[in-house]
């Protein structure tokens, strides 16, 4: 990789590998050159494909070069050397496919040269649309969805590549590749026919049986071997797909043209090293096993005096975010041996602009949200914030890989990631009995809980006046944060669930969990966790009473 001089390098890569061995990579980066420099024809049997999504790019393979426009596709065998030069910031989606999977559908794939397919019309446009959808969603799909898309995509790609190979062959007067393509397509469309034979294939293509055999000889295969391979791959795919869990192994083998279950079992074991039953059980167990996410420890270090960008010395960690000079510390490895830390990906900062004008310190959180540092603000959660400025002005940042309640050492495991947010505006005049109708503080909703956020100073900018940015660090306490969380919880239970004050306080004592959110951001936090399941019966009664125009009492 060669970067452009005088241009800061940045890049974002999102990658995944499918169960069938395809590698999917989404790239967004600054101008640079990506080069395939050490290709080996004997060992590099994979096939690559790239969808160009944004930016100005050129492709070179030593003899040819062409420009790529957004939507264009470039592809070829991995054993060819080439380079992609990006003259501007760019985005690309790249796929690396197992050679066996591609050659099963396109036997002449290894003989192809890198090629270009316009994404502006025809087949290229259809393929570009499919790849764009996959690029946008592959990291959100589960295993079964990926397997379903991948199966269709392999066939789709093969059709597109075959069309390109056909064009290239015709231009060069090489008709064998086009003929082999037609033969493979016929086989693919009739795999389930147990009577499919060399004679039938030759007759369908107006060829002699010898010519069909010769076409496969050119790829190092035989007709019989290719037919068996494709049927086994189809059976393998169905055995791994829980959608077909209701089908017996015999049903699946007969579905793809085998007419002897014992012969199928023997051929399957020869190819995959497992019986069909063992393979199905193994893949089913793997798909059902939940991924155990964890963070590997790296090292810790003793704090040494650090000087921040303003020249202030910090003999202790007395302020979050002080840059650490790596040369001034001693790394202590071998820490937390045998300890596994759960991943809790979340954004520490989610805020709307406060009503106050001028500069506002982004470290202390408040009623407008901000640096809340509550790990429950994660995927699938909803955060309610009251709008105080025209347009709302949403800010998001400070991503954490993991953090415990309290954040006692002054930092979480800081990281970088991309979030997808849905922003919904609830007009105050349209709200009636919604639990968040009258909130003036950050309220988190998860599928199972309500999480109410309290602070030492609920609105420190108003409470502390002109010196608020400094006084909030001096006057915060857990006592005041707990008091604020209690008051908000009492009010929430009384307004959202029509409890009396005595009932609310009793419930708080026996069933509401309070925890320290953080003690590092100036305005300390305590949150209350209320389980939704406690109110199922009560809400049913309240809803029934409202629908009848009456009232209910406890």
Automatic annotation (TrEMBL):
Top-level division of the source organism's lineage: Eukaryota
Keyword annotations from UniProtKB, A to Z: DNA-binding, Transcription, Transcription regulation
Location within or outside the cell: Nucleus
Pfam families in the record: AraC_binding_2, FmdA_AmdA, HTH_18
CC annotations in GO: nucleus
Keyword Metal-binding: no
UniProt GO molecular function: DNA-binding transcription factor activity; hydrolase activity, acting on carbon-nitrogen (but not peptide) bonds, in linear amides; sequence-specific DNA binding
PROSITE patterns: HTH_ARAC_FAMILY_2
Domain HTH araC/xylS-type stretches: 181-282
SMART domains the record matches: HTH_ARAC
Keyword DNA-binding in record: yes
Principal location class: nucleus
InterPro entries for the chain: AraC-bd_2, FmdA_AmdA, Homeodomain-like_sf, HTH_AraC, Tscrpt_reg_AraC-type_HTH
Protein name per UniProt: Transcriptional regulator, AraC family
Source organism of this protein record: Necator americanus (Human hookworm)
